[in-house]
Amino acid sequence: MELFLLVLLLLAAIGLSNLVNHFAPFVPVPLIQIALGVLLAALPLGIQVPMNHELFFVLFIAPLLFHDGRRVSRTALWQLRFPILLLALGLVFATVVAVGSLIHLLIPSIPLPAAFALAAILSPTDVVAVGAMSGRVKMPGSILHLLEGEGLMNDASGLVAFHFALAAALTGVFSLPAAVWSFLKISVGGAAGGALLAVLVIRLRVWIRRLGMEDVTVHILIQILTPFAIYLAAEHLHVSGILAVVAAGIVHGIERDRETSPQMRLQIASGSTWSVILYILNGLVFVLLGSQIPEVTRESFIDPTTDNAEVLGFIVVITAALLLLRSLWVYAAWRIGWRLKLRHLPKPSLRQTGIITISGVRGAVTLAGAFSIPEILENGSAFPHRTLILFIAAGVILVTLAAASLFLPVLAGSKAVFADDTKERTEKKALIRTHLAAIREIRERTGNDNREAAAGLIASYTRALQQLQYPDSAAAAGPGGPEETSLRLKALEAEARYLDRLIQEKRIDAETAEAALERIHRMKQAARRRSPFRGPAIGLMLKGWLRYVKAIFTARRGGPDPYREKRRQRQKLQVNMAVAAIQALRGEINPDNQAAVYRVIGEYNDRIAQIRSQRRRKASREWIRRERELQERAFQAERNEVQRLYELGQIPMETARKLRQQINMREVYWAKEFRPV
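Predicted structure:
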């Protein structure tokens, strides 16, 4: 029961962190979650979360790195392979030697192997924290890919170096040739083993699908279990489990991109499931990290052999040394690569070097590795200054997080692209972004079963976008203007040409052709603002009623219903004629008539959606349900985009509040107008 309550408190802290970030978006979510973890551990609630490093790696690090491997750009990863390897391998080992030696000089009581172990565990950067920090700044794409690749690779190299240094500290024995051979075996074996196991898992899923088992739940369960199984299998074989799950994630990403007929339901369910899992795991990592800080701090402060002020100074000096070494390494390696004319490497600059340097945030891997240091050596004596090492590791994590949150926006620049606009222009741009987000959401949720409902909703949002994007041209060439009249006549001519082709090919009967030609004639008269020619229209209406009465008597006598089939043929003809008109209008688009063309195309799209929706509405209630689901998701996508813009600093609180109000009002009106059939 206590464990269950602890889990509930941790999950509540994650939810609270996002609520706090909603009102204070300038504070990164990881810092808020760390603060809440500190608060949970500091309150007199008897909450103690033991840090089991083995469980921590398999439960948190494995799925997070697996997902990062799935979504990372393989093209960017390959193009930046040399800079990534220089950071993930070269910088890690340079950090172990240089910073480890500095730690031993600062604190001589810490043996050199233990100092190397501390430097090794301080070398990996946290890709999750980097992603959270880069959300509010204009991070260049190449730098972001470089940081992601470094974060994926340097966890393994840092942990391998840490284990060798720790083994030397525990046993007092170290062999460089043996260490190099073991490193190659562990890293290459982990990557190759992870890729091989991933291929086997993919083959298993294909085999299950060929058996006819298309149950989405089964395939999602296999996806969730994959990173845990691969990590445990790799560790059991004494190779790098971290590199194994990264390689497995990359292989799964390649398989996902090459899949020719992906299941829409599986994609949607997989995305939703992983988003929830990653949201919880990312939050738990930082909340748990914060929950360990009070205990580490308390042990260090009550230790009579340490001077607290001096230890805080050590943390500042070690952090400064890490950042200085990182900046020098990045700038030197970048300049050498640029002089060698390596592709995809622009001329190095101090600003970009500073961005990469300050983005070297330490996180969960550092603290979990530090907690894996045993309390006693093999000879039975206590591990020298274990509490101090834990305190330094926690301090470096906090200082790097705080430094990144403060200086990264200064170096990279804010994403507040609306900052120089007036209040009205800011609101208008934000509205455009929310409508685009709604359209993206509808398209992502569109499948074969809800395509008609999605088309109608997209057409509605498209019309709203046109009114927002081209208000001036819409006013100058408003509805009924000469430019729009000309476009409508060209569209009707395209309909007439399509109809004439059907008549010549004898693919349409005379009665249907007569009705269609009459409609085109009346539409042309209306477009020219003339009085409609009513004589033939009245005659056609009388003929239609006579056909309808005849169909009723025929159906009552048990015969076929020709009227229903004729109506279906005419609806299909109207859709095809509208498509022909849209194709003709698209060929008329130029910078001067965009608004008018889009307005007429929107009307044709409305007609197509209306015809299709009438058929679906008469078929079943399912169409209404699907339309409602899509519209509700579109409203939520608009709200999410408003919150994202606010968190990025692109719109002020007042504008965000006003946009949310507008979305809520539209949703209420839409719900009132909604009438299920």
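Summary: Residues 416-420, 473-480, 530-542, 673-677 have pLDDT under 50 and may be disordered.
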